[in-house]
Specification:
The structure is a homodimer of 188-residue chains.
Chain A: H1 3-10, E1 12-22, E2 27-40, H2 45-53, E3 63-73, E4 79-90, E5 97-102, E6 112-118, E7 124-129, E8 133-143, E9 146-155, E10 158-170, H3 177-187
Antiparallel strand pairs in A: 1-2, 1-10, 2-3, 3-4, 4-5, 5-6, 6-7, 7-8, 8-9, 9-10
Chain lengths: 188, 188
């Protein structure tokens, strides 16, 4: 699978269930969210706009996605909603690795560029460095309708959080039929 | 890393925090456990005994481990304690893959043989087939003192559960110093 295929398979509506393990406190926190992922073609205006923010020639972008979420966290009462645009800019010598441009993420309030690596095992690894934080996220598909993500967060050189997200495809795509089979068999 | 090195790095005392996502119910369940992993040499009597139960010549075993746990689950009040012996029996043509013999696991009450595969990315994948279930678990080290596990469980052909476990090394090994650094930095 290449990065475009990974984005294509990610497109759609997902129920996303995230559990964060706060390592120092030995506590976990749950978050649930509906997520919509739309694939953006490399020549989409939003892709070009994000490239320009990073002073990158838009013709080097290989694909993009808009991610919109609407969810709740366990430890507060607020609704968490938002959206971000992601754009991949592959390395010239190896399109399986490159830069990941991000409009705005869940945690950050300013644009942050990370890097991506599409593995030979079809897992996508994203690494983002912030001023005082470093995060690595691994995403993969257990099936076309079950996406998994594991991330670790380092602050000041030490691991502070590990998070796990299971994402179940929702809605009426043909592939989604298999998910309701899974759900049904689980309750039988 | 080969399978023996993975077992060696796993030896010690760990605080294990597991969260299971029950996919059909969109609910999660936490479990916390102290785990002790002792490496057993290939010629250890317990390794030989387990091989004999599976009618495998003990000389084909490459290594073994005894895992002892003592923990609690969120959804019941009972103490969960127990122990099991694991033994790896590599394939003759490729020692990175083979059988994983198991005395008794957390879920099963009878001996079950699975398979293991040590990946080029230093992750260990374990696959176990039961009568009506199939499980795949991936284990890897984020650092020598932070072990991670993700497992998926299929029942009757559909995914029913995804679990994530973060394991922090406890106690007085030299490597463990880095863990307390991580914990300290997280709370600062």
């Amino acid at each position: 699978m290449n990065i475009q295929e990974f984005f294509e398979l990610s497109a759609g509506k997902w129920f996303s269930h995230r559990t964060s393990h706060h390592l120092a406190f030995k506590q976990s926190e749950d978050g649930k969210s509906d997520i919509v992922i739309e694939m953006l073609a490399a020549d989409h205006p939003e892709v070009a706009k994000l490239c320009q923010q990073y002073e990158i020639d838009p013709k080097h972008a290989s694909c993009g996605a808009r991610v919109t979420w609407n969810g709740t966290m366990e430890w507060d009462e607020e609704k968490h909603t938002g959206s971000t645009v992601l754009v991949t800019v592959p390395n010239e010598d190896n399109p399986n690795e490159g830069k990941l441009l991000r409009e705005m993420g869940y945690a950050e309030k300013a644009p942050v560029a990370g890097s991506y690596k599409m593995g030979s095992d079809d897992a996508l690894t994203l690494i983002t460095e912030y001023e005082t934080m470093w995060s690595e996220e691994r995403l993969w598909f257990a099936s076309p309708n079950l996406r998994m993500r594991v991330s670790v967060l380092k602050r000041f050189g030490g691991f502070s959080m590990a998070s796990f997200t299971s994402e179940i495809r929702m809605g009426g795509t043909p592939a989604a039929a298999k998910v309701s089979e899974a759900a049904n068999s689980a309750s039988s």
